[in-house]
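Fig. S4 source data, part A: sequence.
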Amino acid sequence: MLRAVLCCAVLCCAVLCCAVVGHPQCGEAVGAIAKPESLPLLEEFARDERKEVSETCALAVSRLRWSMEGKSEDDTSDENPYHSVDPAPAEGAVSGTATPDEIAALRARLMDADLPLFKRYRAMFSLRNIQSTESVLVRSCGAVFCFCWACLVAPACASAVQCGWLVTRV
C-alpha cells in the first residue's frame, strides 16, 4: 500500500502537460489510500496555483483527516450500495430511506458554493446512495451546475454565455 502512495506522490511531483489528467486523480488516490504519511504531500499540493489541483488535494486532505479522526456518527460507508471508496464519505440516509426534507437539505449542501468541497461531495455521494428518482434529479441539477462551472473556468466545449444561461435556470 505504501508503494502505491509513493507512486502517486511521484506522479504528483512530475511536471505534466495537463494538470487535469494527472494531478487531480492522483490526489484522490492518495486520499483514498488514507495513509497519514501522505498528509504533508497532499497539503503541499492543496496550495497549488492550479485550481483543479488545489481543490482536489484539499478534498483529499479533508478525507484523510476525517478518516484519521475516526469515523463520525453519520458515516454510512458500510452501507454504500456501490462498495466504492469515494473522495468524501456519504452521510445520513441510505438507499430508499430519505425523506423529501432530507433530500432538499442534501441538495442545498450540494449546491452551496460557500461550503467546503468535502461537505458538498458528502452530500453528492449521499444522494447517489439514496437511489431514488428525486435524488437522481437533484444530482442531475448538480451535474449541470458543475459542468457549466467548469466551462466558465476553462471554456473549451461551450461558451460562457451558454453555461451561464444553464446555471441560472437550474
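Fig. S4 source data, part B ends here. The chain has two domains: 2-68, 77-168.
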